[in-house]
Amino acid sequence: MSIDPGVLYIVATPIGNREDMSQRAINVLQQVDLIAAEDTRHSRPLLNFYGVQTRLQALHEHNEQQRVPDLVERLQRGLSIALISDAGTPLISDPGYPLVRACRDVGLRVVPVPGVSAIITALSVSGLPTDRFVFEGFLPARGGARTRYLQALLEESRTLVFYESKHRILDSLLDMQTVFGEDRQVVVARELTKTFETIKGGTLAEILSWIQADSDQQRGEFVIMLHGYVADKSDELNPEHERVLRILLADLPVKQATHLAAEILDARRNDLYKLALQIKE
Ligand code: SAM
Hints:
Elements: E1 7-11, H1 23-31, E2 34-37, H2 40-49, E3 56-58, H3 64-76, E4 81-84, H4 97-105, E5 109-113, H5 118-126, E6 133-138, H6 143-151, E7 159-165, H7 169-180, E8 185-190, E9 198-203, H8 204-213, E10 221-226, H9 239-249, H10 254-265, H11 269-280
Parallel strand pairs: 1-4, 1-5, 2-3, 2-4, 6-7
Antiparallel strand pairs: 7-10, 8-9, 8-10
Helix pairs in contact: 3-4, 6-7, 7-8, 9-10, 9-11, 10-11
């Protein structure tokens, strides 16, 4: 195949296993005039492995706004450019959006050279419904903002997909347990396509205690997938539940009120938590 002048190629690279690279991706990277890469030091060894000697230029989240006009101008002059990120598909929780937007705005051709992305890789083996899903990327780093973000997803019926790093895997799962309840099904996919690949599913409570008990399971890169919300009969408004919760919420924060109400009423904490949020609103 040959490369067209004035085209921006968006090229996916592997998320771990170097054999997950398409022949077309290698051909394109060998033939373009320039490769814009998130981290040139990271990408050089990978490109050497595929016999790609093309010139590299850094394009990361801190410089992409400034670099875009220059790259667009080069494309308009007829150069061909490929964009890669450190791993997987560019623009998927990775740099590239301003460049693609700018190219499309001025009518330049943007051509995908597809390959791996952690989200699709993880979903394909999750055993969770994949006919509809929502990709949420990385959750907010701070606890309060993260909890509020998750609360807004409480009744999302599609499978929820999150990216997470080793620094926050436990905190995020703990917040998910608080918001979605101990019984919500979750699948955690760690180190996909790498030596220590682990894909484990269960309830939030089960998966949390499994990861807490084994520090090895807290290492690496993660995709967290949550089963969507399933409405059941217990969601129907129970006047007694509402009465007890209202009394407790007059003096207590939501979490404590829910905890006590669950003891008093012998009801599911998750359902009471949702009801408590509704009352608060
Ligand atoms: N562009 C990439 C893609 O297409 O998947 C995602 C880049 S984002 C900066 C990195 C995050 O993707 C990691 O923190 C992790 O959540 C997820 N990820 C990337 N590689 C992974 C892998 N091998 N196993 C599990 N998750 C991975």
